[in-house]
Amino acid sequence: MEELDYLAGERKRAEFDVDAMKIVWAGSQHAFDVSDRMSRLVASDPAFRKDNRPMLSRKDLFKNTLRKAAHAWKRIIELRLSEEEATALRHYVDEPAYTDLHWGMFVPAIKGQGTDEQQKKWLPLAYKMQIIGCYAQTELGHGSNVQGLETTATFDPDTDEFIINSPTLTSSKWWPGGLGKASTHAVVYARLIVDGKEHGVHGFIVQLRSLDDHQPLPGITVADIGMKFGNGAYNTMDNGVLSFDHVRIRRDQMLMRVMQVTREGKVVQSNVPRQLVYGTMVYVRKTIVSDASTALSRAACIATRYSAVRRQFGSQNGGPETQVIDYKTQQNRLFPLLASTYAFRFVGEWLSWLYMDVTQRLQAGDFSTLPEAHACTAGLKSVTTSITADGIEECRKLCGGHGYLCSSGLPELFAGYVPACTYEGDNVVLLLQACVARFLMKTVSQLGSGKQPVGTTAYMARVEHLKECRCSAQKAEDWLKPNVILEAFEARSLRMSVACAQKLSKFSNPEDGFAELAAELVEASVAHCQLIIVSKFIEKLQQDIPGEGVKKQLEILCNIYALALLHKHQGDFLSTGSISSKQGSLANDQLRSLYTQVRPNAIALVDAFNYTDHYLGSILGRYDGNVYPKLYEEALKDPLNESVVPDGYREYIRPLLKQQLRSARL
Amino acid sequence: MEELDYLAGERKRAEFDVDAMKIVWAGSQHAFDVSDRMSRLVASDPAFRKDNRPMLSRKDLFKNTLRKAAHAWKRIIELRLSEEEATALRHYVDEPAYTDLHWGMFVPAIKGQGTDEQQKKWLPLAYKMQIIGCYAQTELGHGSNVQGLETTATFDPDTDEFIINSPTLTSSKWWPGGLGKASTHAVVYARLIVDGKEHGVHGFIVQLRSLDDHQPLPGITVADIGMKFGNGAYNTMDNGVLSFDHVRIRRDQMLMRVMQVTREGKVVQSNVPRQLVYGTMVYVRKTIVSDASTALSRAACIATRYSAVRRQFGSQNGGPETQVIDYKTQQNRLFPLLASTYAFRFVGEWLSWLYMDVTQRLQAGDFSTLPEAHACTAGLKSVTTSITADGIEECRKLCGGHGYLCSSGLPELFAGYVPACTYEGDNVVLLLQACVARFLMKTVSQLGSGKQPVGTTAYMARVEHLKECRCSAQKAEDWLKPNVILEAFEARSLRMSVACAQKLSKFSNPEDGFAELAAELVEASVAHCQLIIVSKFIEKLQQDIPGEGVKKQLEILCNIYALALLHKHQGDFLSTGSISSKQGSLANDQLRSLYTQVRPNAIALVDAFNYTDHYLGSILGRYDGNVYPKLYEEALKDPLNESVVPDGYREYIRPLLKQQLRSARL
Ligand SMILES: Cc1cc2nc3c(=O)[nH]c(=O)nc-3n(C[C@H](O)[C@H](O)[C@H](O)COP(=O)(O)OP(=O)(O)OC[C@H]3O[C@@H](n4cnc5c(N)ncnc54)[C@H](O)[C@@H]3O)c2cc1C
Ligand SMILES: Cc1cc2nc3c(=O)[nH]c(=O)nc-3n(C[C@H](O)[C@H](O)[C@H](O)COP(=O)(O)OP(=O)(O)OC[C@H]3O[C@@H](n4cnc5c(N)ncnc54)[C@H](O)[C@@H]3O)c2cc1C
């Protein structure tokens, strides 16, 4: 039997080796193999079915997630999967679950903040899932401001214990995933109080539930915080609320790698520097950046395929109508997002390298690159997650009415994705307070002082040149030159930072200036982060990339990424004089012609993500393009269609039609 | 007992008469009275409870909506409410229902397209709800391209009937609200075929279900199209799918105001001009514009109040932390949205006037203003709904993590709102193909030909001046002058349109040019529409507006609206030379100082919307600001909290913790 493929024609048009691109996307042949195998394993196992999620009640939805998590773990054990494979398998199950927090936050927290003995005690339990852990930092009253947490951990020298307590309503832990129903343990952040004195916020391993019957231990009150955005989405997760009524834990359950409390109640700073926690943050945020590229790529894959299937208007002489992907407006909305998925992918790859580099340096006692690495990871987390969240919604709109159906996969992708803009640091707070803007202002203030800017701020050393240089583009094709693009982005970023610094210097109290100019500082931070992404894409292209036509396609995408940004932020480029308006207009002409070049390759470029239909979870994004009959089939599964005459007709429709409402009991 | 009001301090700071502003917002004292009475009526009736929606299954959710719709109708009859009051009551029930389509589309379609006899026959049935109607235009394969609809209506002269048929899968009607389960009738759009000849798409009144038992009539297949975005949101609506197998209807069920088919099978154009349908479109879209202002105002109200309650960072000497509304970044994201709600309100008011004006002219046989009115309504629909959709999501993000909870009200507001960007014309298609861009290009091409541009394009008559003029702003305060703002927006819009027209003229085939330059044309259309909104706001302020300090506040909001737009689109203003970069920077300085002015009035400005807590449906937006205890209460209502140990523990958690998964059946 011939396999159905409505997109076969599109696939034939591709001008590059799709299989080679798959390797580039995955990062390596090995990474491709693992991801390919695991995604098929999940897709072929009916236990991992997920298309029914929107129809389940909260309780059934959650129970179903518990089942899948257990089944996944069972398969991981049975098949003796490696850590890498297990992670990939969980990823392709594609359902937020308590295990995400167990593996993604609880274990890393112990690894990062626990002493060797603590690691030896707790990690084996966690690795075997004999305990289930979560990460309990945020409280009802405090998220961004971690130093403002209210939970207390008071040392009791008599019993050698800490007393964990929630003194106020707002001090309840609120949000931690996996906390509400599944976790037996948590890393709890609390203000350390020893001998009446405060010593800042630290992590404590606290057992929450009995390992016999899962009942909360005495003094512990725990519950789920209720429904969240979307119907499936993050509602598979038991984000929880937790309060402590003087709960006692052993002293050795404080995570003591950085600071210790001794038997005698002495608070001792260890020789491990505090900056170490930055290392963990870099780790978690680099993961968020690669997740951003994944989430956006799924949306772009759906919208691209459906835009090639969907036809609307433009029929000539009774022939087929125009594929909507051929409309320039559709291209102008879609292709920059497609380019962004690749851009985010490569900057994510680079962050993995950066994390490795930082880790090695830390081990060698070199902390010099940490602040820069920390700032740039935070900034990239913020910029990529914001674009991804908006981009998923844009992809949904690109699918017209049908994008609004759950069966398009896009509503749930969006609802499940958006919290990435908030957790692990609110995106605005990250850009402003936490790191990027402050780091940039510090860097600018040190220019000329002899201290060389490092890493992603190295370009600032060329401050004199970048302040004065004029863009050399004279015709549209000049905008294909990496150095022209790079210099424009560098000039824009540097000039925005310098302008902020100059304005700041006029305030007698720098903090007042910082508060007043916050919005501009955020814009300068965004400009700097966009430059990083553009430059890492360009660097990637300087490598050897095998596969026929592969590099060429990536060059096109890189240029689309940069020129679409340039157009979107034209105000920045023009107001800083980094380009002229004529040059902006040339860049836009070039952009249009790049769209034409990428168009025949669009389907192949999303095929390169190598997503199974199970993982995509979208009728509109089906590999075979067989959209319409399947939309129909899917619709008929809705429980509302169990009867043609709806439940409620007799009570609420008939009396109305029959003008008998007056006497009806409603 | 003292009433709790955590925001009392904020309310005292207001520098204007809130009650007077309520009248301005409502449009008149009368409109305020109606809306105030109806919103309280709904809020005080437990039958209209809506906080449990996220927890209901699709079937229960839908049944519940049927109940509310019947109850609302019962109250409307019992209380003998006027049409205006009934509309307001339905609005405050705040739940998409089949009645929206019955009153909002079915009735207007018959009014607009039915002959006098047809109206006499059908309207009384519809007014009494003896029949329930929907509007069935879109098909699985065609939405935007109405001329491409595939359903056929073939005249059979032997029986004096039309045969309605769905020849293909893609010709099934798909999306109409109220169609799936509730409607007994539909206005169905189909290609008219008489004597083998096609006569375009027309509307037909078709009965779908028996009035005895609600069973679909022979030849009719109808169902619900399944779950949509969000858990409550639009899932209360039975958007449906419908196909016809040679269904026969009487000839007089074709809506014949514009075109008739006679007993003999002659197709006769009536003397009513086709443009009349534009009138209905202007009506529907003006409603969408005022709905945009309402939806955005709800989100802004929630985010503003919560931003005043929420404190994070900045505690000095143990005092309270800073209210997040005091951060400039928060203001920079929130206040332009607050200003937009007022801007959209006033442009909506003006559209009501425009609709009246157009209707009166039509009655007098004057069609001259119709194209302009049609273009500007379509453009304003597009621009206001896009900003509102994005704005609601931004308001959600402004609430940090808690905005992600359903109990914040924001997720459902978003999910229920976004289809407004798609229905009644996809926003991009509206700007480009349907009307705005084409109308602008036509207007530009006729400049200098003696034909004066009318209505909202009148400014284009000053083409020579606007092409050359230079913005006069020299200091930040100059940006408070309405004429400075207006001229900058006019120059930007005109220059963008003229630039497009010039580029277009270089193409030998104008349609090729139009296709190639589509993205730029959309930008020019947006610029024109933004100018309309700014200018209508300014016009409003030239009226007499009673109430202490009211006008002053509106002036501040008007300036914020305009200057925030100017900053966001600075690229347009600079590249067209409409302002200099120095002037752009001054405008931004002015904007910051406007934020400071609006800050103490922010809470009062959202109080002026006069929303009940029931209508807002948000814990974060509660009038009294008593957020935290109520978040807690709400969380505990989740069905998942019925037991502390979750359903599924025994099967899926315990075996895992006890390392007994191998033998478990999952
Ligand atoms: C789905 C989800 C899962 C989560 N999982 C976990 C978890 O497992 N464990 C855990 O501990 N936590 C978790 N969280 C909590 C999350 O980390 C916090 O929500 C996040 O840190 C943001 O803090 P907040 O909610 O207090 O926002 P807020 O800080 O209250 O932010 C509200 C608004 O104020 C603004 N703002 C705040 N401070 C400033 C400032 N200084 N300057 C300018 N603007 C400011 C913000 O930009 C935002 O617009 C989760 C949250 C979500 C939504
Ligand atoms: C919640 C909801 C309720 C609805 N209620 C009703 C109802 O009661 N009755 C009814 O009849 N219909 C209803 N509709 C259908 C609605 O009117 C259509 O979805 C809408 O007209 C868009 O058409 P489409 O879905 O075919 O989008 P498409 O036209 O398929 O659009 C897909 C993409 O193609 C692009 N595109 C299409 N044509 C062009 C072009 N010429 N140039 C550039 N780009 C183009 C669009 O911009 C979009 O990005 C409803 C829809 C929704 C979501």
Task: Walk me through what this model shows.
The structure is a homodimer of 666-residue chains. With 666 residues, the first copy, chain A, is of the alpha+beta class. Chain A folds into two domains: 108-272, Butyryl-CoA Dehydrogenase, subunit A, domain 2 (Beta Barrel); 277-607, Butyryl-CoA Dehydrogenase, subunit A, domain 3 (Up-down Bundle), CATH 1.20.140. Chain A is 52% helix and 9% strand. Chain A has 24 helices and eleven strands. Chain A has helices spanning 8-12, 18-26, 29-43, 58-78, 83-93, 98-113, 116-127, 276-309, 328-363, 370-398, 410-417, 427-434, 436-446, 463-468, 482-504, 510-516, 518-542, 550-568, 570-575, 581-598, 602-607, 613-616, 627-636, 649-657; strands spanning 133-136, 152-156, 161-165, 173-174, 185-194, 197-207, 220-224, 240-244, 247-250, 259-261, 267-269. In chain A, the strands form three sheets. In chain A, strands 1, 2, 3, 5, 6 and 9 form a six-stranded mixed beta sheet that branches. The first copy, chain A, has a three-stranded antiparallel beta sheet with strand order 4-8-7, with no helix packed on it. In chain A, a hairpin with a 2-residue loop joins strand 5 and strand 6 (197-207). In chain A, helix 6 (98-113) runs antiparallel to helix 7 (116-127), helix 8 (276-309) packs antiparallel against helix 9 (328-363) and helix 10 runs antiparallel to helix 12 (427-434). The longest helix of chain A has 36 residues, at 328-363. The radius of gyration of chain A is 27 Å and the shape is globular. The termini of chain A are far apart. Chains A and B meet through helix 4, strand 7, helix 9, helix 10 and helix 11 of A and helix 4, strand 7, helix 9, helix 10 and helix 11 of B. One flavin-adenine dinucleotide (FAD) sits between chains A (101, 135-138, 143-144, 175-177, 234, 239, 419, 422-423, 426, 428-429, 432-433) and B (310, 312-313, 324, 327, 329-330, 398, 400-402, 404). Chains A, B: It is found in: Peroxisome. Chains A, B: This is Acyl-coenzyme A oxidase.
